[in-house]
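Re: weekly structure request thread

Next one in the queue (203 aa):
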Amino acid sequence: MMVLESIISAMIQVMLFSVIPFIWWFFSARKEQTFLRWLGLKKPVIENKRNYFVLLLFIIVLFHVPLYSITYFYLDSSILASNRFTGIGISGLIPAFFYAIVQTGLSEELFFRGFLLKRFMHKFGFQIGNIVQSLLFGILHGLMMFSFIPFGVVVLVVLATAFVGYLMGWVNERKSNGSILTSWGIHGFANLFASLTAMFNMF
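Done, posted below.
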């Protein structure tokens, strides 16, 4: 039952996060390229694979250190989305996979790095576009916790998440030829790791 619910939730969230991008694409770019390619869902073009993977590892570490520090020192882990997997062990593996990789990882990357960043870049250039999308990414995560934690901690969540969002936008556009597969992999891995730690009560 939990597996089916996770699959359905994941599909619904991806569709919801794709509605505005799809409408925008339909009326502005459907004659130029397919919807998924327009969003950057394409194979990344990598010049130096060794440096690329070192960079990915570095970003993954940066993804975890500030966010896990905030979680450890300031947040009650029961308010985190991954809390649904707490203590359930291996039976939560498939639901956690769909939650981490599809429901949050794919849907958020399609919308923030695939849709918003590329539209803002087109209008304002890369630096401003990336800053704006990353701030919106951070604000979304801060708003989700606004009712549960002090305002100062909300600001920390916004800044830490925005910093990660900026790095993922940068690595997509500067090192992956505009492919969001890179940030999807980083985002999905980070969320899956959080879910696994909850599943096996690792922290």
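The helical segments are 2-28, 35-39, 49-74, 93-124, 126-145, 151-175, 181-199. The CA atoms of residues 137 and 162 lie 6 Å apart.
Next request, please.
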